[in-house]
Design goal:
about 120 residues; mainly alpha; about 65% helix
């Protein structure tokens, strides 16, 4: 099955950027702001549940837009945005509120991560 886009190249980029903005809006509405996530204890289950919900909602929105437009560029730009926001949220949820270091205990990485200089 050929996946032929219904968009012209300039429309493809515009819809891709709009999809990225829509993914950002989903994450913005589903999750608290990053300062609040950094201030909570590391590995907070409520933040993790909200992150998963935002990721699945964004994936559903991205899938619908990609299937309607039949454009790979829209999918790539939206998927990069989902990945970036998900990793940003995971990092914020894994940081200790007092020290700012990543808490790795319980994640299978040993007792602590440290910066090597």
């Amino acid at each position: 099955m050929a996946f032929t886009s219904i968009l012209k190249p300039d429309g493809s980029v515009a819809i891709g950027i709009a999809t990225g903005i829509l993914v950002y809006a989903v994450y913005d509405k589903e999750l608290p702001d990053m300062a609040t996530i950094h201030a909570t204890d590391a590995g907070d289950l409520n933040v993790d549940s909200a992150r998963k919900k935002a990721a699945w909602t964004s994936a559903a929105v991205l899938s619908a837009i990609t299937l309607v437009t039949k454009d790979v560029n829209v999918f790539v730009l939206g998927a990069v945005m989902i990945f970036a926001l998900d990793m940003h949220t995971r990092h914020a949820n894994a940081s200790h509120p007092a020290t700012g270091t990543l808490v790795t205990q319980g994640y299978g990485y040993g007792s602590d991560l440290r910066s090597v200089s």
